[in-house]
Structures are given as C-alpha cells and as structure tokens.
From TrEMBL:
Gene3D superfamilies cross-referenced by the UniProt entry: Aspartate Aminotransferase, domain 1 (3.90.1150.10), Type I PLP-dependent aspartate aminotransferase-like (Major domain) (3.40.640.10)
Keywords tagged on the record: Aminotransferase, Pyridoxal phosphate, Transferase
Protein name (database record): ornithine aminotransferase
Record's GO cellular component terms: cytoplasm
Family named by the database record: Belongs to the class-III pyridoxal-phosphate-dependent aminotransferase family.
Organism listed in the record: Christiangramia gaetbulicola
Length: 426
C-alpha cells in the first residue's frame, strides 16, 4: 500500500497526532532531509541542527562514510542473531575495546538497554566477586539523573512526570545529590552492599549541569576505596561531545585519547550509545575489563539485535570519523568560542542568566521563572530564524550542534541565537 504523500508540515503533524502515541511534545518542525550540520523541512526551509538528536549525530547528518558502511553491510548480511557468529562482530569488539581502553564490550541497541545491562553486570559482580548476599545489592545514583525510560531506570528517577503511575518501582537504588563527594563517601561508608555508583559526567537532560572539575576523579577514588564499581553513563557526553573522547577525561589537555594517565578517570563500567553510530542506527554498548565483564555467562543477558553486523559496521565507521576529522579538538575549540561569545552577550542581557557546558554540550539558563514557557517561545523563534534547539528541564535551552561544524558556521549560529534572544529582552 503506498504511503500518503506529505505535502506540508501541517499534514505530517496531523497524521502523527491521530495515529501515534502522544509520548513526545516536539517542536513543529517536520524534517525530511539532513546533511552535515543542516536539516531541511518538508517545505524546503533549511535549519542549523543545534540538538543533534540529543547528541547522537556528533558526526553530522548522513555522513557519507557511515552511510556507505551501513549500505555495504546491509546489502551483504544484516542480522544473524547471536545464535550464530558473524564475521564482523569480533573485529568491531577488538576495535572498540582498543579505542576506549577496555578488555571487553557487550553490544546492545538503545541507551536505556545499555544502562540496564550495566546494572545487571554490577549486581552480579557484587554477588559473585564482592560477596554481597543475593538480592541485597544497591546501586547509588544521583538526584536529577537521566538514564532512560525503562521500568527499572525510571524507578530511580526523580522526574515525577517520567515516574507517576508507572510503579511498582524496582528496588535497590540509593539516591544522593549530584556533585557531592561527601554524600558519596558517607553513603559508601555506611553500606557494604553497594555494587556500583552510576553517574553522568555532565547531567545533560537535567540542563547540562556541569560538576566541579575534580568530581569524576574523586568519585572514582572513593569508589575504588570502597570496592564499588564506578559506572559512567557517557551515552550523551561521550564520543567527543564534550571536547574529550569521554567526558570523564575531558579536563586534561590531551588531544584525543588521554595520555596523561593521572588525569584520566577510567570507569569500571563505561556505557555508550547515541554517537556510537553517529545517529544512523541504534547502537549501544557496555565496556568493562575482564574481572567485571566475565561475570556474564551464556544465557544470562542478550538481545536479538545487539551486535548485529550492520550495527558493528556502522559503529566502526562512526568511531573512525571521530578520529579522522578531529572532532574532539573541534568540539573543544568551538565550545570555548561559543561560551565566550555567549558570555559577552550575557553581560548585557536581561533575558539569559548564564551559559554553561563543556565542549559542544552547552545550555543557557533563561532569566525567568522555572515553569514559564519562555524557553519554548525562544526555541520557536529560533526555528523561525533558521536554527533548531529544544528546551530541557526548567527554563533551560540545550545547545548541542553536530561536531563537524566549522568556525564560520558556529559564528553564524551565535548571531542567530543572539538576534533571537534580543527579541525577548525585557
Ligand atoms: C545520559 C543518558 N543515558 C541514557 C539515555 C537513554 O538513551 P536511549 O534514549 O537511547 O534509550 C540518554 C538519552 O537521552 C541519556 O542522555
């Protein structure tokens, strides 16, 4: 049956509204094409993409190398399930584990699944290696976290909208304030049953909440001292987004993978998704060394699609692009420029309080009450001016363009943002 031809944004929105569940509240932009840092809507209007599918499209839309790898693999062999081996999974696992510096990788599809996987590994490790009595393991998480939408993951969220009426909730999680080493230390000191500390190096969904520079390093030290696994959710922050290969090693001055070991905080469990495929395909992964990963044995975890040949080919190409095109260095350079230009504007602005972030994961905080619609209205005006961004929690707008942006484009985007913000000055 032929699909109905979409002639306008309005028609497409109406179809979604009538036939799709109402689980999102998108900006009314109906996109039909993307290339590099740009997307086009069905009317042919061109926009800068300043969200990058929540930091999945770090390598830019439809990157030819990634799309090429996907086409080539899809036309040869797309899916075997893990009932059989395929000839690319092992090569991908070797490549990715060397790339990030771990012994082993467990492939999954979405970010939330990878978080679930990490939780299962940590619990099993606690029972089999740490000696915690079965069913008593706890995972420490942070207030205002965002780790996905599954039943277990929302069980430890404090976003009421994400939780309400979805209980009963999964037990076994202890919440502490973010960016508070004393709270972590006190919690681990008190409870010998803690398996892991699950943390975002920057809280993206919460509004690009950027912790103090030594938080990750000190959290890892505290975890090591108490034999607790340090679990970094780098689904949004990882793979060059924040100006380091990972955000946990984003503060040092290394170019690329960190060589200054003293500032490199290696997680015990690393959780990746989104940009692992450059946004072309759902690919996620959990990485750990043997001592941790080897607790998982046949039949104990898996997914029909996890580690499929297309995912493996796409991930290798996506990681290659990050290195070949120096996206870490570019994110770092353009991120600094972005915050400097925004800071210059903010000094004279009464509509924006501050800009914060690292690399090209940034946000502005609107000078208005938390629950006003100003951030939404600004995003609507940005759209009219040719740039797509989305409010996040509170009155905050996240800015996360593809990392293949050049300086001229970034300056153009800052001009659009400032011009738009000026329309809202009081
Ligand atoms: C830090 C973090 N963890 C987990 C997730 C969930 O990933 P997915 O939407 O692919 O399930 C996200 C998605 O935004 C995220 O930002």
């Amino acid at each position: 049956m032929p699909l109905p031809k979409i002639n306008s944004s309005e028609e497409a929105i109406k179809l979604e509204d009538q036939h799709g569940a109402h689980n999102y509240h998108p900006l009314p932009a109906v996109l039909s094409r993307g290339e590099g840092v740009h997307v086009w809507d069905v009317e042919g209007n061109k926009y800068y993409d300043f969200l990058s599918a929540y930091s999945a499209v770090n390598q830019g839309h439809c990157h030819p190398k990634i799309v090429g790898a996907m086409h080539e693999q899809a036309s040869k062999l797309a899916l075997t399930s893990r009932a059989f081996h395929n000839d690319i999974l092992g090569a991908y696992e070797k490549y990715a584990t060397e790339y990030f510096g771990f012994d082993k990788l467990l492939p999954m599809n979405t970010g939330a699944e990878a978080v679930e996987t990490a939780i299962k590994i940590a619990r099993k490790w606690a029972y089999e290696r740490k000696g915690v009595k079965e069913t008593e393991a706890e995972i420490v998480v942070c207030a205002n976290n965002f780790h996905g939408r599954t039943t277990t993951v929302i069980s430890f969220s404090n976003d009421e909208n994400a939780r309400r009426n979805f209980g009963p909730y999964t037990p076994g999680f202890t919440k502490i304030p973010y960016n508070d080493i004393d709270a972590l230390e006190a919690t681990l000191e008190k409870n010998p049953n803690i398996a892991g500390f699950l943390v975002e190096p920057i809280q993206g969904e919460a509004g690009v909440f950027t912790p103090s520079d030594d938080y990750m390093m000190r959290a890892k030290e505290v975890c090591s001292k108490h034999n607790v696994l340090f679990m970094a959710d780098e689904i949004q922050t990882g793979i060059a987004r924040t100006g380091g290969l990972l955000a946990v090693c984003g503060h040092c001055t290394c170019e690329g993978h960190c060589e200054r070991q003293e500032t490199y905080t290696k997680p015990d469990i690393l959780i990746l998704g989104k940009a692992l495929s450059g946004g072309n395909y759902p690919v996620s992964a959990v990485l750990a060394d043997n001592e941790v990963m080897d607790v998982i044995q046949p039949g104990q975890h898996g997914s029909t699609f996890g580690g499929n040949p297309v995912a493996a080919a796409v991930a290798v190409a996506a990681l290659d692009v990050v290195k070949d095109e120096n996206l870490i260095q570019n994110a770092r350079k353009l991120g600094k420029l972005f915050r400097r230009l925004m800071d210059d504007y903010i000094k004279e602005s009464n509509i924006v309080n501050l800009v914060r972030g690292r690399g090209l994961l940034n946000a502005i905080v609107i000078n208005d009450s938390e629950d006003s619609s100003t951030a939404w209205d600004i995003c609507m005006a940005l759209k009219e001016n040719g740039l797509l961004a989305k409010p996040t929690h509170g009155n905050i707008i996240r800015f996360a363009p593809p990392l293949v942006m050049n300086e001229e484009q970034l300056r153009d985007c800052v001009d659009i943002i400032i011009k738009t913000l000026k329309q809202f000055e009081k």
